[in-house]
């Protein structure tokens, strides 16, 4: 990890105590002579006029600090991955698997980052999804899901060119190990350690009990074709972006060459996080 000379700050504007946490963060960074770039919403919170567009921060900072929840972090994840900029998520939400640093450990963790502590850096790989001529990158998951009033949809699924299923379901989740504790977990998928080279294929409320979540190699290509017409069906990327799908559309998902480095607290590890957030194993 290279020396941190500038930090970009992204916030969830309506998070509790956001102004106080933001002020504490700035005071800490200024005391260590680290330049701080505030996104527009963060600058506005402090009545400053020097805000930067969220989309521009990763190209101008050596580290991105997210004050908010997982959704806020996901909104900058692919941009940070493309620029090779690490991201530290400070949890101001209710759960937060990605924004895993508690507010009380924010400055402690920043001290470790600034001192070059590599043990708190967790590399996470992304998915690449192709729909027609559109290409998307996702940290958590690629989801095919029906609209609010749509009936079940039918899909044809291939893995490495081999047809594996033609299920009817409310939708389909293709997730990374990082995303295994997100939507996939709610759909009955397994929990995977972040660096395991695997992809989860998890149906959403399948019509048959025999179509269960499965895990395939991250070197595999997963392809899904929508067979249902006349319904509202969307391809959703990390819960952040959505594209409408039509009958016959195919999405191909594979491991991306992009990785993002997430910063964790030196006082915690992955299993600690599972116990804290899910009560796992208790």
Task: Characterize the biggest β-sheet.
Answer: 11 strands, mixed
The H-and-E topology, N to C, reads as EHEHEHEHEEEEEEEHEEEEEEH
Rounded Rg: 20 Å
Shape: elongated
- Count the domains: 2
Which CATH class of the largest domain?
Answer: Mainly Beta
CATH homologous superfamily assignment of the largest domain: Probable inorganic polyphosphate/atp-NAD kinase, domain 2
Helix content: 10-25%
Distance between the termini: 35 Å
As for the CATH topology of the largest domain, it is: Tumour Suppressor Smad4
Structural class: alpha+beta
Describe the structure.
The protein has two domains: 6-117 and 266-278, Probable inorganic polyphosphate/atp-NAD kinase, domain 1 (Rossmann fold); 127-257, Probable inorganic polyphosphate/atp-NAD kinase, domain 2 (Tumour Suppressor Smad4), CATH 2.60.200.30. α1 links the parallel β1 and β2 (35-38). The strands form two sheets. Strands 1, 2, 3, 4, 5, 6, 8, 9, 10, 14 and 17 form an eleven-stranded mixed sheet that branches. The model has no long low-confidence stretch (mean pLDDT 94). The longest helix has 14 residues, at 18-31. 20% of the residues lie in helices and 36% in strands. By secondary structure, it is of the alpha+beta class. The protein has helices spanning 18-31, 40-45, 70-83, 106-114, 183-186, 270-278, and strands spanning 6-11, 35-38, 63-68, 87-91, 121-131, 134-138, 141-146, 153-159, 162-165, 168-169, 171-175, 198-204, 214-217, 222-226, 233-237, 241-245, 250-263. It is elongated.
């Amino acid at each position: 990890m290279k020396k941190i000379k500038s930090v970009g700050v992204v916030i969830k504007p309506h998070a509790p105590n956001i102004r106080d946490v933001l002020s504490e963060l700035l005071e800490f960074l200024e005391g260590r002579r680290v330049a701080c770039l505030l996104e527009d919403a963060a600058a506005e919170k402090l009545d400053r006029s020097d805000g930067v567009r969220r989309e521009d921060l990763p190209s101008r900072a050596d580290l991105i600090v997210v004050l908010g929840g997982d959704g806020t972090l996901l909104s900058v994840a692919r941009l940070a991955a493309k620029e090779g900029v690490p991201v530290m998520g400070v949890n101001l939400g209710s759960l937060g698997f990605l924004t895993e640093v508690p507010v009380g450990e924010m400055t402690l963790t920043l001290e470790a980052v600034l001192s070059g502590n590599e043990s708190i850096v967790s590399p996470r790989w992304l998915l690449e999804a192709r729909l027609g001529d559109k290409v998307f990158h996702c940290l958590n998951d690629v989801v095919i899901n029906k609209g609010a009033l749509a009936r079940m949809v039918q899909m044809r699924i291939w893995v490495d060119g081999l047809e594996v299923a033609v299920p009817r379901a409310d939708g389909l989740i293709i997730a990374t190990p990082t995303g295994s504790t997100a939507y996939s977990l709610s759909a009955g998928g397994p929990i995977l350690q972040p660096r395991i080279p695997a992809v989860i294929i998890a149906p959403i409320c399948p019509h048959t009990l025999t179509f269960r979540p499965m895990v395939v190699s991250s070197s595999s290509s997963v392809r899904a074709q929508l067979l249902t017409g006349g319904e509202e069906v969307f391809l959703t990327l990390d819960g952040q972006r959505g594209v409408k799908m039509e009958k016959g559309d195919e999405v191909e998902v594979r491991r991306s060459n992009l990785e993002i480095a997430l910063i964790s607290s030196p006082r915690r590890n992955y299993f600690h996080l599972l116990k804290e957030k899910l009560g796992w194993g208790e």
